[in-house]
Specification:
5-stranded mixed beta sheet; disordered N terminus; alpha+beta; 58% helix; single chain; 406 residues
Length: 406
């Protein structure tokens, strides 16, 4: 007969759907995780203990070997005293007691030294890991409003100093990225608000009139179409910029000269309309890249060179392979107004239109454009692992150089 304890016990172990072993593991107290400082201290203590034990054993063994080794033959007396055996036994007892006492004293001293070494190791580990604590605290404080803070760790140029400098550089890049993002969002909001405001104003002015003629309706429709087209172009440019800032995942082999030639075909009508003096030097420049993005970058460079040129001015386009074929280079130079070399780098910022840039409304006489052309070029260059630079020409205008790894 069965008392039923077995089945009841089995049912009790699974009645809550959890195996008994799992519940027992959850009931066990969890030990706190050891910090790096504690692990270093324990490592120092263990290593010192092992070394001390080896030293004590070696010292005791040598001591035993020296005091218990037999006397040389020439030191043994020829005539033995009647009490010789008693003296030898007493001597053995004295040596045993001395060896045992030496072992006890050595072990006590070893324990004291291990304790002191553990305390010293704890202090040394704290001193060595203090930069890590500072880095951890800075990482916890890091936010979009505290990215301007820097560690600037003092001390020698060791691994921890290098880690702190790397963390400072990362904070600097993040701070610049957040600042650029805030500027971009603010500028994009303003640029998108302008065509919408123009559309709304045109509609409200027309609707508010007591009697609207067909010509007025057509004029309003034209204004709305222009504003809508401007917003559409801006949104398209923003999408291209966002796509350009990603890493290239599907590169193909092509020639930068062919890409530049296609971009030249797109601006041929504008070049003839403004009677520009065109100089083309398209030498072979093999490149492995995303052809679509690179075509947009080349087209933006040429369109900017035409838009910001003067009638009858110079437009020079050249491609070449540099550094023994390791780079493909596209150079675009144009005439135009004299630019301040100190502010040339600002032209690559989103929505920057050179001397026509204004944060309120579009300046009078500013060339048409969204102000994203050179920003897209820079994003495309970075996505391909290259770079783009601009240099103000003394006689006026700009020289932009796009360098891509071949």
């Amino acid at each position: 007969m069965s008392d039923g304890s077995g089945p009841r016990a089995a049912r009790g172990s699974i009645e809550d759907g959890t195996p008994r072993s799992s519940r027992l593991r959850r009931l066990r107290p969890r030990l706190p995780a050891m910090t790096l400082r504690t692990r270093l201290t324990l490592t120092y203590a263990v290593l010192f203990t092992l070394g001390g034990c080896v030293l004590v054993l070696a010292m005791t063994t040598a001591f035993y070997h020296e005091i218990f080794r037999p006397l040389p033959a020439h030191e043994v007396p020829s005539r033995l005293d009647p009490d010789h055996d008693h003296i030898v036994g007493l001597s053995d007892q004295i040596r045993d007691a001395a060896a045992s006492r030496l072992l006890v004293i050595s072990l006590v001293l070893l324990a004291v030294v291990v304790a002191l070494s553990a305390l010293a190791g704890w202090w040394v580990a704290g001193r060595m890991l203090r930069p890590l604590a500072a880095i951890t605290a800075a990482a916890r404080r890091a936010g979009d409003t505290t990215l301007h803070e820097r560690l600037r760790l003092p001390g020698p140029d060791d691994e921890l100093k290098e880690l702190g400098d790397t963390f400072d550089a990362m904070l600097e890049r993040l701070d610049a990225a957040f600042a650029a993002q805030r500027r971009f969002v603010a500028n994009a909001s303003h640029e998108l608000r302008t065509p919408l405001a123009l559309t709304r104003a045109a509609v409200e002015v027309t609707v508010a009139k007591p009697a609207v003629t067909e010509a007025q309706w057509r004029a309003m429709a034209a204004d709305v179409a222009d504003s809508t087209e401007r917003a559409q172009h801006l949104i398209a440019a923003l999408l291209v910029l966002a796509r350009s800032e990603q890493r290239v995942t599907d590169p193909v082999e092509d020639d930068l000269a062919d890409i530049a030639a296609e971009a030249l075909d797109g601006i041929a009508a504008a070049v003839r309309a403004r009677r520009l003096r065109l100089r083309v030097e398209l030498d072979p420049a093999p490149v492995r890249a995303n052809v679509a993005l690179l075509g947009i970058a080349a087209a933006n460079l040429l369109e900017n060179a035409v838009r910001h040129n003067r009638d009858g001015g110079l437009l020079r386009v050249a491609t070449a392979a540099a550094r023994e074929g390791e780079q493909a280079v596209l150079t675009v130079a144009n005439d135009g107004p004299v630019l301040d070399p100190r502010h040339v780098g600002d032209l690559f910022e989103p929505f920057h239109r050179g001397v026509h840039t204004r944060r309120g409304a579009r300046a009078q006489g500013a060339p048409e454009g969204s102000g994203l052309g050179l920003s897209i070029v820079r994003a495309v260059a970075r996505a391909h692992g290259g770079q783009v630079t601009a240099e103000a020409r003394p006689e006026g205008g700009l020289t932009v150089t796009l360098r891509l790894p071949a």
